[in-house]
C-alpha cells in the first residue's frame, strides 16, 4: 500500500491536533510535519517534501492565500485548504483555488463531535486524490521542465457552421486559466460554452458571478432543465453532474446527483462529455486545461469516436500537467498549445 506524507499548516495547535487525528485514521497517510504559518510552511515543504499539504487561510505573518501563491511559484505541491471560512465568505476560497489549491473544506464539515463518518471518509478520499495527482514535474524541490509540443491536427476540419458547442474542462489552476480565456470572447460570439471546473460544493455560483462581471457575454451557473442558448458561458454546478439531453428537437441541461460511471468528481468532465459527444458529434469542440488526475480521458475517447475536435493545454503552462497529459499521450488531441494560445486555437476551429 502506497503511503502519502502530509504537512499540516495551521496556527492553532488545537486544530493541528484535530486535523492530525483525522488524517491518522487512514493508514495511507503519515504526518511529515506541522507548520504554524505560511513562512514556516514554505521552509518545511522544501525540506520535508510532503505529498500533500493541508492549509489554513487565516494565519499570522503569512496567511494561507499568500503562502499558496509562494508555494505554487517556487515549490509546487497539492494543497487542500481546511478553513473556517463560510460559503458566504467564499472569496478567500476562490482566491485559494484560483492560485492552485486542489480542494477546499470547511473545518466544521470535517472536525467536531457530530461529524458524520461519511464526511470524514469523503475528506480522506479527496486528500488521497490530491496526493496521487501530484505531477511528476510539479514535485516540491524539483525544477519543472518546460517543453512545448504541438501534435499534428487530426480532425481540424470544423468550420463555423459545424461547431455548435464548446466544452472546457479544468481542475487545479483552472480558475486562473479560465480568466485568460473567457473574457476574450467577443460580445457577438454566439456558440454556447460549457465550463466544467472541479470545485467544492457552493463555489461555482460565485465563480460564475465573478466571470459574468468580467466577460463580454453572459456567464451563469447551470440550472436543471435549462435550455442551451448561444452567446452564453455555462458553469457546471459543483456537487452535481451536468448532462445534456435532447427532448424532441430541443437540447437542455440535466443536473443530477447520480453518476453513470464511477467517478470521484462532481462535476465530472467525463460525465458531461459522455452525454454530449453522441449528440453533437463532429460539431463538438473540447478543450482540456490544467488539472490533476485523468478526468476527461474517457469522455475524450468518445468525442474522438464521434469525430469531435480536442485541444489540450501544453505542459509548460499547466499548474498540474495531469488531465491534458493523459489525453495527449492517448493520442486523442488534435493540438496541444500553451495557455496563452488556447483562445486563438479555439477560434481557429470555428
From TrEMBL:
Q: SMART domains from the entry?
A: REC
Entry keyword set: Chemotaxis, Cytoplasm, Hydrolase, Phosphoprotein
The entry's localization annotation reads: Cytoplasm
Q: What is its EC number?
A: 3.1.1.61, 3.5.1.44
Q: Cite the CheB-type methylesterase domain residue spans from the record.
A: 159-350
Residue ranges constituting the Response regulatory domain according to the UniProt record: 5-122
Active site location:
171, 198, 295
Could you give a GO molecular-function term held by this entry?
Answer: protein-glutamate methylesterase activity
Report the main location listed first in the record. cytoplasm
Q: How is it modified after translation?
A: Phosphorylated by CheA. Phosphorylation of the N-terminal regulatory domain activates the methylesterase activity.
Q: What class of enzyme is it?
A: hydrolase
Instruction: List residues, modification 4-aspartylphosphate.
Output: 56
Concerning Gene3D superfamilies, the annotation shows: 3.40.50.2300, Methylesterase CheB, C-terminal domain
Name under which the protein is recorded: Protein-glutamate methylesterase/protein-glutamine glutaminase
Gene encoding this polypeptide?
cheB
